[in-house]
Design the sequence.
């Protein structure tokens, strides 16, 4: 467990760092957790949620960093609020997540066993949305972003297939795409009730139409809720193919 300075003065992100055997240098994979508007739900964030993905990268020679962003898990001020529903600011929420990702990447790259090249940034739900926002900044040394069920505002009022401002989500995906030059992999399941196929497909298309490089996979239904496809094994062929293409 490491403590990594965040963008919030005086607050350090608890970050689980998993390292292969040896001295390196190793490529880095940063995995970013989801979020919620409900503070009680945010406190329940646990790194073990993505154990399969962590192990998958570790076995392939990556150092894996799993940070708890401010306002989640161990505390701190929540900085990713989308500000309501009808007037939700999904871009600002994503950029604040991206700020935390940037802080972790900058810190980890100072470690002697981390390669400055070949970094993969991955995320789930709001963590994936923030990863796309980070990709829009064109960070050096990042060769790919993996979006597991990314978005904001899903299941508004806890109703399935009910996003609170879908047109704003699609428009923001377009803005992210307009400045992104990093390849991105978009993974969604058919039975995702947070971001159903019609919405996730629209976001990916808007991202691509704006100039972004997006490879969109609609995976088969998995479990009782496809939004958590990251916890299954359905994503492995797509991720392996994506990384093979990156060398």
Sequence:
């Amino acid at each position: 467990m490491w403590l990594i300075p965040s963008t919030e003065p005086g607050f350090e992100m608890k970050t689980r760092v998993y390292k292969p055997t040896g001295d390196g240098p190793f490529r880095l994979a940063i995995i970013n957790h989801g979020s919620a508007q409900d503070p009680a739900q945010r406190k329940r964030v646990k790194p073990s949620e993505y154990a399969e993905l962590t192990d998958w990268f570790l076995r392939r020679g990556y150092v894996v960093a799993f940070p708890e962003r401010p306002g989640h898990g161990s505390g701190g001020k929540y900085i990713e609020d989308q500000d309501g529903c009808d007037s939700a600011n999904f871009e600002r929420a994503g950029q604040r997540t991206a700020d935390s990702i940037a802080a972790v990447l900058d810190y980890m790259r100072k470690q002697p066993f981390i390669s400055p090249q070949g970094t993969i940034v991955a995320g789930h739900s709001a963590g994936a949305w923030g990863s796309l926002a980070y990709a829009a900044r064109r960070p050096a040394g990042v060769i790919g972003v993996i979006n597991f069920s990314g978005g904001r505002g899903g299941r508004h009022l806890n109703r399935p297939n009910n996003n609170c401002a879908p047109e704003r989500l699609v428009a923001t995906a377009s803005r992210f795409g307009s400045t992104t030059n990093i390849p991105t992999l978009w993974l969604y399941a058919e039975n995702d009730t947070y971001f159903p196929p019609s919405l996730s497909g629209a976001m990916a298309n808007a991202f691509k139409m704006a100039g972004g490089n997006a490879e969109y996979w609609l995976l088969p239904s998995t479990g009782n809720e496809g939004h958590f496809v990251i916890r299954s094994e359905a994503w492995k062929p797509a991720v392996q193919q994506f990384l093979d293409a990156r060398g």
